[in-house]
Write a structure and sequence with these properties.
mainly alpha
């Protein structure tokens, strides 16, 4: 093999190593970002569940007040 061919091969190998290194760094960054996003998703799910529980409680309170109001209206009808 001639010296020029060897130099070209060496340059290509170095370029491949540099590209691999950059890709590994990008993979690490993406893994960190993915971890952060997973935490955000879990927090959002927890918030969603809390809102669903609160909504159920408010609906129950609404139903209780509606029942009490109906009972009062019924008593008023009996008086009239």
């Amino acid at each position: 093999m001639s010296f020029e061919v060897f130099e070209k091969l060496e340059a290509k190998v170095q370029q491949a190593i540099d590209t691999i290194t950059l890709l590994q760094m990008e993979i690490e960054e993406l893994k960190e970002k993915n971890g952060s996003l997973m935490q955000e998703v879990q927090q959002a799910q927890g918030g969603h569940e809390a809102l669903e529980r609160e909504n159920a409680q408010l609906r129950e309170q609404h139903n209780v007040w509606q029942d009490r109001l109906q009972a009062l209206l019924g008593k008023m009808d009996e008086v009239n």
